[in-house]
């Protein structure tokens, strides 16, 4: 029999009580705020049966400039067998914006993490090939950070 | 050009330049450099509903080396700028460039870190087509304007181009 959403949240609370900061819900999807150190353990735990969150739907980042924990990593997990989504959020400090890479667990995290590194400058520890995905070699800075100047351009060739 | 019809074997008097311009303007081979949604509008203009071939500018070439007219259709990012310049450099002279749609003309709504603010910052442009995306009528009008320009240019095309 399929496990209910409430049971999963209860299991998580019991097993990772020290690392779960808060649980909220928005538009029918549950959001779990966690400490960044526990990310790999939680994802590994949920990927196994009976939860089977085997699909990483998306992985992205939000910049809250001015706050002490400036960057918020967002992970969307999906369980095909339970037809259930879960969203994890982890805050990173500006002077220590590193988080463990999920590439060993989900292969599609490879390019998603490269995109976040390119746009926000978050480093992923254990990533096999952390290089810019969209911007070109020689581009300085990370354009989706709020302190990147709005109209600053870095042309690749001399303009006329 | 004056042409008298009286049934006899006639002759035409013209100047070399107007003859050359007439030949060039009705055999415009185009190379569409399509990068964005304006490409849909280009397709509807080039295909049977509006049919650019009626005006002698319908033949699409699949290499810039055989083309006379470069249609830059869509947003050009800074990452792509060297590619566009190489394509332009590969075209044999005489050559003309059309900036197709708001993004190619001025960067459009994308005033940010990624997008070139108008392709005239990379290559010289002859005709600008506004619109997001432009209607096929606008495209046809612009290309007819380009034909008028070609008619007037004559054989010293290269030297005129350098002056401007």
Notable characteristics:
heterodimer; A: 160 residues; alpha/beta; Beta Polymerase, domain 2; 5-stranded mixed beta sheet; two-stranded parallel sheet; 3 helices; elongated; B: 164 residues; Rossmann fold; 4-stranded parallel beta sheet; 6 helices
Shape of chain B: elongated
Q: How many domains of chain B, as an integer?
A: 1
Largest sheet of chain B: 4 strands, parallel
Say how many strands of chain B there are: 4
Strand order of the largest sheet of chain B: 1-2-3-4
CATH topology of the domain at 5-100 in chain A: Beta Polymerase, domain 2
How many separate helices of chain B?
Answer: 6
Number of helices of chain A: 3
Write the CATH architecture name of the domain at 5-100 in chain A: 2-Layer Sandwich
Fraction of residues in β-strands of chain B: 5-15%
SS-based class of chain B: alpha/beta
CATH superfamily of the domain at 5-100 in chain A, by name, is NADH:ubiquinone oxidoreductase Nqo5 subunit
The radius of gyration computed from the alpha-carbon positions of chain A, rounded to a whole number of angstroms, is: 18 Å
CATH class of chain B: Alpha Beta
Strand content of the residues of chain A, in percent? 25-35%
Sheet bearing the most strands of chain A, described? 5 strands, mixed
CATH domain class name of the domain at 5-100 in chain A: Alpha Beta
